[in-house]
Amino acid sequence: MDKTAMIEKAEQMIAQIDDLPTIPAVANQVLMMLDQPDTKVEDVADLMLTDQVMTAQVMKMLNSPVYKPTHEITSLRRALVYLGLSHIREIALTTSFISAFEKDTGAFEINAFWEHSFGTGMVAKVIAGKIGYNDLEKAYISGIIHNLGIVFLSTYMREEFKNLLESIKGRSVRMIKEEIARFGTSHCEIGLCMARKWNFPEAYCEVIAFHHTPAEATIDPVLCSIVNLADMFCSVRGLDYGGNEWVSFDLHEEQAWQILRKESPELMQLDIERFCYELDDAIPDVQELVRSIFNSNNKTGQ
Amino acid sequence: MAISDKDFELLRDFIYNICGMYFHSTKKYFLESRLNRRMEATGCKTHQDYYLLLKSPRGSEELKFLMDEITTNETYFFRNVPQLNALENKLLPEIVDIKNKMGFRKLRIWSAASSSGEEAYTMAMILNEKRSTLLKNWIIEIIGTDINETVIAQAKEGVYNAYSVRNIPDMYKRKYIREDKGLYILSPEIKKFVTFNKLNLYDDNKMIFMKTFDIIFCANVLIYFDTASKSKVVQHFYNNLQPYGYFFVGQSESLHGVNDKFKTVHFPGGFTYKK
Hints:
The complex is a heterodimer.
Chain A: H1 3-15, H2 25-35, H3 41-49, H4 52-63, H5 76-83, H6 85-100, H7 110-130, H8 136-145, H9 148-156, H10 158-168, H11 175-183, H12 187-197, H13 202-210, H14 221-236, E1 249-250, H15 255-263, H16 272-294
Helix pairs in contact in A: 1-12, 2-6, 3-5, 6-8, 7-8, 7-14, 7-16, 8-14, 9-10, 9-12, 10-11, 12-13, 13-14, 14-15
Chain B: H1 5-19, H2 28-42, H3 47-55, H4 59-71, H5 81-102, E1 106-112, H6 118-128, E2 139-146, H7 149-157, E3 159-160, H8 162-165, H9 170-176, E4 177-180, E5 183-186, H10 188-191, E6 194-198, H11 204-207, E7 213-217, H12 227-240, E8 241-248, E9 263-267, E10 270-274
Parallel strand pairs in B: 1-2, 1-7, 2-6, 7-8
Antiparallel strand pairs in B: 3-5, 4-5, 9-10
Helix pairs in contact in B: 2-4, 3-4
């Protein structure tokens, strides 16, 4: 199906929703501040600290074994210095996105969805490291947000999406095909429209739009490929939120694998088997991170 | 003796690099208890001592004892559920589709190192269930081979203990297993699909005749072979597999560095190899 038509359809779907979540006030102020020239990390930190929930989320996201910082990050200020000014925008947006969808009102268990998202972030960062991609934080954040469109479907098209999940149970079909058949669009286009509405930077919008078809990406096909593979590996190694039950993939036939191999020929030497087994081992860390972000209001990071 | 995380990782990496078997973190206490037995037998006081023993010239002999402790040499029906699910729901229908198009309605499956037959008979049960649907008018041929004649005789007999049958789903158990004084007897309806033969995987002259398989299983055997033997045996499996077929190893095994021709195909909870 034509991508433009699918994007139009997605826009229509989003336009019909009256109570779309908006970016929290503090995040909005952070974003505005970042648009000013000469903004200092310290000023952004002071502003973010007025929002305890956001502060706690940022600290948890960055201190988790899932992210593996080189040393423990003890204050928000340090966290932001560590990330660099360029990533504060995404972190602010990502935490806003998480807060917007933390309630379990959708078609599936929201914790499982976030486990998949943070798992994808973690694996994306590992793959990015293996191929020498220059921005590991970007890979991590991209992984967390890649399925923005899915939470939209699950929250605002609850019954339809539930039926869809039910219909593919035990069948070997990719969920995205079924979405297109039923909605005339998919979570990729829906996510893209939402991300644009929220002013996510273009490179992130592209990941959301092309994480299933990385060869179509133009800004950063490598990043889209990283997220694509991370997404698939998580789906088959126990970090799945339903809907991919009988997915199987032949790694060498995936466009993402071919793109990344071109980027980094050493990837051929990757011990894929061990990579999978280590991913199994990391699942409890991912689950713990998600639990800590969503199931407590622990206020840290002063 | 409790094993530290550092020693666990050290020994896990050693076992993985030599044997191609990965110990998940969840298996730490299992490995710890098995290591303790071997440490006692060899007089090693610390895990470091035992690690050094494994790395010494005597190491390869000791590693065999350790692997015996680890694999316990026992098998059971429906052992690798994710593998069986993927086969039943995805991989088998694909193979059947390809062969239907070629007009070649025969399925050939090989359980290499079949031991007492549980793996081969598990496949027979699953496939027999499909004989009125997916596999209607198909010929099903399952071959089990092992180097050990005693286990081949057991496999042919088809009588099992409670441990072996504990994982069989009720639906299959009711249909194909009969209990008699604590023994579990397999129905002739299932037995008839499988033939068992003696075969040494090292025997090149015989290995080249094991042709045209759609699915090959070889679980928890290659871990005992050195790298050169492993490569040779796996190359045979590669040659003996149909272009659209699949080669399965055990749940935590890896062929990394053994054969660079096989490609990985991933499914929920596992992966398999394809040409």
